[in-house]
Amino acid sequence: xxxxDCLIIGCRVEGGDHPTLAPMQQxxxxxxxxxxxxxxxxxxxxxxxxxxxxxxxxxxxxxxxxRGEQNLSLANIER
Length: 79
Hints:
The protein is mostly helical. Helix content is 51%, strand content 8%. It contains five helices and two strands; from the N terminus they run αββαααα. It has helices spanning 2-5, 29-43, 48-55, 59-66, 74-78; strands at 11-13, 22-24. It has a two-stranded parallel sheet with strand order 1-2. Helix 3 packs across helix 4. The protein is globular, with a radius of gyration of 13 Å.
């Protein structure tokens, strides 16, 4: 459930009114989400390969998510 933790990344779409969340551009969400995935994975001491094995995803897919190059489906977030 590491990826579900990533949903709390402290960002919002430009023009939102939440008082504690930083403004961001819409296309920045993948980069910020990927950075949060990498941070949480690293804090748990998991390599990309170990994390990918646990999530039943390919290691290169995890890398692309962390770099903000891939959109992550809700089905994969649940893994």
